[in-house]
Amino acid sequence: MVASYDLLLVVLSYLVAAMASYTALSISGRLGQAKQDDSRYWRVGGAIVMGTGIWSMHFTGMLAFQLPVALGYDIVRTLLSWLLALGACWVALSLLSRHAFRWRSVLAGGGLMGLGISAMHYTGMAALMMTPAITYRPGLFALSVLVAIGASIAALVICFKLRQARRHLGWYQLLAAQVMALAITGMHYTGMAAAEFAPGAVCGARHALSVPMMATLVVGGSLALLTIAWIVTMLDARLESQTAKLAASLRAANEELLRINARDSLTGLANRRAFEAKLAELQAGGDALSVAFIDLDGFKPVNDSLGHQVGDEVLVAVGQRLAEAGGRRNLLARVGGDEFILLVIGARERPYLNSLASRLIEAVREPIEVGRNMVELSCSIGIASYPTDTDEVKRLIAMADSAMYEVKRSGKNHVRFYSPELDLASGNLVERQRELRNALVQRQFMLYFQPKLNPYSGELNGVEALVRWQHPERGIVAPQEFIPMMERFGLIVELGNQVLELALQALQRWLAADRAIPVAINISPQQFGRDGFAEHIIARLTHYGVPYRLLTLEITETVAMADMTRTEAVLSRLREAGIPVSLDDFGTGYSSLSLLRVLAPNELKIDRSFIKDLAQSPAARVIVAPIIEMAHSLGMTVVAEGVENEAQADVLRSLGCDELQGFHYARPMTGEDFARWCFEQPSLAAVPA
């Protein structure tokens, strides 16, 4: 029996094969990217789509095949052929879900897939149920099976190789789909050529699935399924691409965040975290390393007098100079307000480090122009080296810091290298910190009182309370020996609170004895800066039952200028409550009329440095006179501290100073000594409450 083919359907069968191949390649690409749970769903869906596509190509080719008898297809065998196609594609996709390419697996998988496709083809041929049965030419039959196996192996190899493509992936995939389509259609038509139909043969399934019905089912259904699958694959790929872009953006954002976290926000230099990370990284290499700890001398007055904006600009300029002087190979970091550290890589020789430190000092010493202001600074530098000074890199910063503090203590503006003797000093520092903490717990601090007198009548106007440390072994310790340590160790606020309690207890005792003597106490910057400062003062005065007017709070210009907005709010609250405020050490800082008008303190204390030469120096009188006049014009009381002789007192009286305080009248004394002193003064025998 002579067979023929419908050319249009032959072309359509090739297009179906090409579309099925392209969709299969897309699905295989998704398998390589999908997570384990998602991969299972892709294998199931992919096997259905890919198997249906190959099966559709087969039956499209069968529809193109024409015999001079009516044809039809057995439903069971047709369905079985479809299941065989799905099984073959499941084998292929299961293999593709593995990420590693192995020839043994590819050959075995390709062989099973090829046999499955061949079984699908010949089961589909059997669905015709020809009588007599179809016979096959052995050579072409074997060739068709080999073509199916070869095409399957080639398809698997192409799928694996496409995963490695980074450029022009779409074109490679399209070309590969054409190669696979040619292989699939080649296998089909080779198998068809192997078939022999006996003359007068009859199709036993002509009354089952007819050719028109089969055409509608195969062509319409399969093309719709393949189209939908292709669209889903493309949309998923696009979604994956967008997800990848978002992930890349997130990685970039994280990297930028890490970069920002490793940088000082003001100067753009490395911060301490980045510095320590670099230090740890270099330690692993065993290279010689040195750390230079740099602290600016005289920066705080710049910040206090010119404001934080100018101070920030100065720090940026200093950072740029230090980075340039320190060298590109080395790493500069800002680790505190006016503290920098330089990591010197591959160097520990003292002559080189000394020369480097000199360059750093000179760089800082050059005047810095900020707006209309010309700022001049210096710096103190401490240097420690690895492995010369220590075999623990992590100790370098602390050792360089100790050396720097020794520079500060001995005059500033030079460099010192770490030496073992500093360990003893560090040990003493730790011991001093322990002692000071214990002193707070044991309440070893006490108050001395220094009178403030009316310069004309000699009457007692009040006292200033001055803290002393009653050390169990060293006796009375002056404040200049422990106040800086308290500030450094963060204990100054607790000390200030104890001073407040002691002053209020003294006021309570004096009030009980019908003596209302105003007491002034010094307030530290840290204490004044605490939230709720004014409310705390008011609460303690109320607790002790002390009239608010009897406690004067002395703050310096530096404290007042730290945060003007906050200072105004705190002073306003204190004024509302009736608690007097004194501006201490006036003349050593900003010292402007505008400052006095804004702060409006009750009292102004002229710094002792202006009083010292008052009797001998006309220039000193020229400075002090307008201060007193200006304060009086604003309704303030003026106190001169550090009065040591009658000549100074005479000048101050002539200038109209309101109160005098100093050794000329009385030294600071204990509460008991102060009580005796009061009764010994004729004009002070009774100070009514």
From TrEMBL:
Residue ranges of domain MHYT in the record: 5-198
Pfam families: EAL, GGDEF, MHYT
EAL domain boundaries: 429-682
Annotated transmembrane regions: 6-25, 46-67, 79-96, 108-134, 140-162, 169-189, 209-232
Keywords: Membrane, Transmembrane, Transmembrane helix
Domain GGDEF residues, every copy: 287-420
CDD domains according to UniProt: EAL, GGDEF
PROSITE patterns (alphabetical): EAL (PS50883), GGDEF (PS50887), MHYT (PS50924)
NCBIfam families in UniProt: GGDEF
Protein name: EAL domain-containing protein
Organism: Crenobacter oryzisoli
